[in-house]
Specification:
5-stranded mixed sheet; 4-stranded mixed sheet; Peroxisomal Thiolase, Chain A, domain 1; binds oxa(dethia)-CoA; 2 domains; single chain; 13 strands
Length: about 350
């Protein structure tokens, strides 16, 4: 009998407010045509006053708990992945923990856009190795709060959102859940996506604010060049570890950074568009929220079935990357002889 971490529930929260590509035409020197052609993005959600990383994360987490049919008391651990924390101290998970009324431990994961998949793997391994029954993983972002809306190279790309999953221990001879994973980081490329000020290296001062050092900056072209290669390498390593061929993957849920990166990576992996989850057109790049957002949409659309193999891959600041291969279950509790309510 072995134990694996299976997804037992999912939830999302996206702000109501939208910014379309046309809205950017009045802000910076860009066009709807350029944005759609080069990124696949048509619109993105933007948090308004009162909406924060934690409020979005709390709403997504609550939806995931509800869908899994569990209460806050049932959660043994909370992990929040974010690049846009609620505030520098304390960690965002403390706010999400309080908002959800949890009683368990909680910590943050900072791995840029790969944060959710990192958290999924870390939470799964703690669950399996730590005799936990349920772990809540949240990816929540308000990228709009760190964007320079005069920088056309970044401001058109990102959006705000949160997504969450409940991981539950599934036991049996070959239970559903996490089968294989790959985590990586190339710190020599750390300058490719960064917000330079506000930390130990460059503390906040009037000068850093005046110099625009508190906005996120990205060498998009260089990130693009590396992204396709790294996504393919990480996804392939994960499949190899699981002894699974790409033709057996039922759904590929990649980080939604750019429709061209997704298409190129999927093509190199041999995955046709019918097996790829893409929603970047409506949400843009939501960093650590993008994978759970795309997963939830695919699940809600009935694209996932019992026994399906689901492959996640994400890459971002750091540069950090992460992949995970899971066997989906419509009701992981059944593997333990107990149906979820
Ligand atoms: O989630 C974290 C990981 N992030 C990513 O994976 C992002 C990866 N990078 C990308 O998605 C793409 O590199 C971008 C979408 C950021 C840029 O697309 P690109 O095809 O790589 O364009 P580029 O940076 O090579 O720029 C081409 C041209 C430049 O003009 P010149 O120098 O050729 O005259 C840019 O200044 O496009 C210009 N440009 C724009 N034009 C209109 C850059 N941004 C814009 C814009 N509107 N918003």
């Amino acid at each position: 009998m072995i134990s694996r971490a299976a997804i037992a529930g999912w939830g999302v929260c996206v702000p109501e407010a939208r910014l379309t590509n046309a809205d950017f035409e009045g802000l910076v020197d860009t066009t709807d045509e350029w944005i759609v052609e080069r990124t696949g993005i048509r619109e993105r959600r933007i948090a308004v006053e009162g909406e924060t990383t934690a409020t979005l994360g709390i709403a997504a987490g609550a939806a995931a708990l509800k869908q899994a049919g569990i209460t806050p008391e049932d959660v043994d651990l909370l992990v929040v992945a974010t690049t846009t924390p609620e505030q520098p101290i304390p960690q965002t998970s403390a706010f999400v923990h309080e908002g959800l009324g949890l009683r368990c431990g909680a910590f943050d994961v900072g791995a840029g856009c790969a944060g959710f998949v990192y958290a999924l793997v870390a939470g799964s391994l703690l669950l399996v190795g730590g005799a936990l029954e349920r772990v809540l993983i949240v990816g929540a972002e308000t990228l709009s709060r760190i964007l320079d809306y005069t920088d056309r190279q970044t401001c058109v790309l990102f959006g705000d959102a949160a997504g969450a999953v409940v991981l539950e221990a599934a036991r049996g001879d070959d239970p559903p859940g996490l089968l294989a994973w790959d985590l990586g980081c190339d710190g020599s490329a750390a300058e490719l996506i960064q917000m330079r000020a506000g930390g130990s290296r460059m503390p906040t001062s009037a000068a850093t604010v005046a110099a625009g050092e508190h906005w996120v900056r990205m060498d998009g072209a260089e990130v693009f060049r590396r992204a396709v290669r790294l996504v393919v390498a990480s996804a392939s390593a994960t499949l190899e570890r699981a002894g699974v061929g790409a033709e057996q993957v039922d759904l590929f849920v990649p980080h939604q950074a750019n429709a061209r990166i997704i298409a190129a990576a999927a093509q190199r992996l041999g995955l046709g568009p019918e097996r790829v989850a893409v929603n970047i057109d409506r949400y843009g790049n939501t960093s650590a929220a993008s994978v759970p957002l795309a997963l939830a949409e695919a699940a809600d659309d009935g694209r996932l079935h019992d026994g399906d193999l689901v492959l996640f891959t994400a890459i971002g600041a750091g540069m950090a990357w992460a992949s995970a291969l899971l066997r989906w279950s419509d009701c992981p509790g059944d593997a333990n002889g107990r149906a979820l309510t």
